[in-house]
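Troubleshooting: if your tokenizer reports a length mismatch, compare your output against this known-good record of 291 residues.
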Amino acid sequence: MGTLGNPAGTIAVLQKYGFNFQKKFGQNFLIDGRVLDRIIDAAEITEDDCVLEIGPGIGTMTQLLCERARHVVAVEIDSNLIPILEDTLSAYDNVTVLHGDILKVDIRDLVDTYNEGRPIKVVANLPYYITTPIIMGLFESHVPLLSITIMVQKEVADRMKEGPGSKEYGALSLAVQYYAEPKVMVHVPANCFIPRPNVDSTVIRLTRHPEPVVQVTDEKYLFAVIRASFNQRRKTLANGLTNAGNLGVTRELVQETLEEMGLSATVRGEQLSLEQFAALSNLLYARVHGK
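Known-good structure output:
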């Protein structure tokens, strides 16, 4: 079993290496063994799996992943943690530790190298500010992946799973639900971490849809429409799309299209479902590009 999922084990390693937490990396290390087990269970890791772990820290969850998976690739941005990981993971021969920024790593190359191009599972405990770019980067690049199991701030998890009409519903909800099925797995109180964060966290699993749930002519255009719809939340959808500047639409065109869809000219973005956004995006794209 892993040896770090408790306060004493974690503190011993940090003291041994004189490690200082870096605020810029948003570092919070898990110190509750039961929560760790539940995360691994939530990710449904089997001995056939290749797992990409983003932000392994001192290797607390990495040890447990190594015990369940065929191979683990752990990508860590903080160079001060690399020698610690080499120590804490020295007992495992099925792990590769890479020093780098996950937003700049060629994940497809990792998939080809360590899993022969077959879909991987991603597990991560991410700082709040980087969650969305990493998740969207993984999905938009279409690297082969089965699921992403991530620990995020509770409100971010709420946002990912919400539907139309709620105040949490927005561009992130739609993007996540376009690519995956979100399911909240574990709630994690702030006192399960060193240092203790200001908010509670939630583990959410995003299981990749085998096929997109909606058909769109142009994926990038769909997401441009979605982003523009939520950029100015208090404005109408027509205003948001007209003001965006990168969609090639006029107010008249947007209003005509909404009318054709049976929607009010004053409808707001948070009232539309993913299916309605897909339909709107396809109609606008056809009119702008004459296709």
